[in-house]
């Protein structure tokens, strides 16, 4: 216990001495060993990497989990080294509510059937979101956390050690400087009793003349300075190697960033396909309920390829309802060569994406081209008749941007 108390008192004394020395350096009252410019640049680069990594990590966590309470819960589970329980995504929860509503309101009604279709799509969206979060956490968040909790802590520890070595080195330089000044003064004044108050304890044993004592003091200070300089150089080299490793960290984070973008691209592509399928299903269902009308959506599934495209407006293209409703399957087939465009109701449309015709009744499309479109009685509302020059065929509405 006595030994521990002595060590504690010694450490406290060293800490206080270094704190005073550090404060004097800040006010320019003490000598400070400056690091070279390259080393300072490495330190600044490391600090910048650490700060931006923390910001990117926090914002990515917000992107993957917008609920702050859920993030706190996941953080506590991680600190307690326990597995985070599986959580239902918002899309899956919405799908559950819609399915229950359809079951209670009537699954055979038009509203119930639509609820079931939307619920299935939302469930697929929720599953895609779950896969994206899992992939992004492993391939992107985990490497960032490993850097902050592993490599950066090691760098911080070695930097603190280097700071202490520098303070010790500067203290030795100051002690040697004072000893040499006192030695020169003693040589001029003769054999007077030296005052070691600033360099040695008061109980230091005096011997011989003042000049000899100061000479001995200078020798000891020089020896301490050499030892401090060696320790400082060794620690500076260790810290430099760790700081230069930041370049490898950047390369690793670059690879992780590519993987994050790939997973996000896959996620949004899945969402687009699921919603496109849902849109087609809802369009077919709507056509069965309201066979005499076509409501064309002009809201593109993704931003237009050209930033100068005309303003898109919601449009409804009324078609005269057939007297007998939907035509029988045998009569529903249209001979496109014999179809004439209506006198009114045609309009221009911009093609959003390339489309390959599935058969001879469809018209192949190229992105950004302009075509003329119109609807015919009894047609599936998901499709329009498109004309380009002397070519004519059915085209999907979701691939078009109707122009006003």
TrEMBL record:
Residues 344-404 form the SH3 domain. Signal peptide: none annotated. Its main location: cytoplasm. Keywords: Coiled coil, Cytoplasm, SH3 domain. Residues 24-291 form the BAR domain. Transmembrane segments: none annotated. GO terms for cellular component: cytoplasm; membrane. Pfam families: BAR (PF03114), SH3_9 (PF14604). Belongs to the endophilin family. Homodimer, and heterodimer with SH3GLB1. This is Endophilin-B2. The lineage of its organism: Eukaryota, Metazoa, Chordata, Craniata, Vertebrata.
């Amino acid at each position: 216990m006595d030994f521990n108390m002595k060590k504690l008192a010694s450490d406290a004394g060293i800490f206080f001495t270094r704190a005073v020395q550090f404060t004097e350096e800040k006010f320019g009252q003490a000598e400070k060993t400056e690091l070279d410019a390259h080393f300072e640049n490495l330190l600044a680069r490391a600090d910048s990497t650490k700060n931006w990594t923390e910001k990117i990590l926090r914002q990515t966590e917000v992107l993957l989990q917008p609920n702050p309470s859920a993030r706190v819960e996941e953080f506590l589970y991680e600190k307690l080294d326990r597995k985070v329980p599986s959580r239902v995504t918002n899309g899956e929860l919405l799908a559950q509510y819609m399915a229950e509503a359809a079951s209670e309101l009537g699954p055979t009604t038009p509203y119930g059937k639509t609820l079931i279709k939307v619920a299935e799509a939302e469930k697929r969206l929720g599953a895609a979101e779950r896969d994206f979060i899992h992939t992004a956490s492993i391939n992107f968040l985990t490497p960032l956390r490993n850097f902050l909790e592993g490599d950066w802590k090691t760098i911080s520890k070695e930097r603190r050690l280097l700071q202490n070595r520098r303070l010790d080195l500067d203290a030795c330089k100051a002690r040697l400087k004072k000893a040499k000044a006192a030695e020169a003064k003693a040589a001029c004044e003769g054999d007077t009793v030296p005052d070691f108050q600033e360099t040695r304890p008061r109980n230091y044993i005096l011997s011989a003349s003042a000049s000899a004592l100061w000479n001995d003091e200078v020798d000891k200070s020089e020896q301490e300075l050499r030892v401090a300089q060696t320790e400082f150089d060794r620690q500076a080299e260790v810290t430099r190697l760790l700081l230069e490793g930041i370049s490898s960290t950047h390369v690793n984070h670059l690879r992780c960033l590519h993987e994050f973008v790939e997973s996000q691209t896959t996620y949004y592509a899945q969402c687009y396909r699921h919603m496109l399928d849902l849109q087609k299903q809802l369009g077919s269902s709507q056509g069965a309920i309201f066979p005499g009308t076509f409501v064309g959506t002009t809201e593109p599934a993704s931003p237009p390829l050209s930033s100068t495209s005309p303003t898109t407006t919601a449009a409804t293209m009324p078609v005269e309802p057939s007297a007998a409703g939907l035509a029988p399957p045998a009569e529903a087939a249209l001979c496109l060569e014999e179809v004439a465009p209506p006198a009114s109701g045609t309009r221009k449309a911009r093609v959003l994406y390339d489309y390959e015709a599935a058969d001879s009744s469809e018209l192949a499309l190229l992105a950004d081209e302009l075509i003329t479109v119109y609807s015919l009685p009894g047609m599936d509302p998901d499709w329009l008749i498109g004309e380009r020059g002397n070519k004519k065929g059915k085209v999907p509405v979701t691939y078009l941007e109707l122009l006003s």
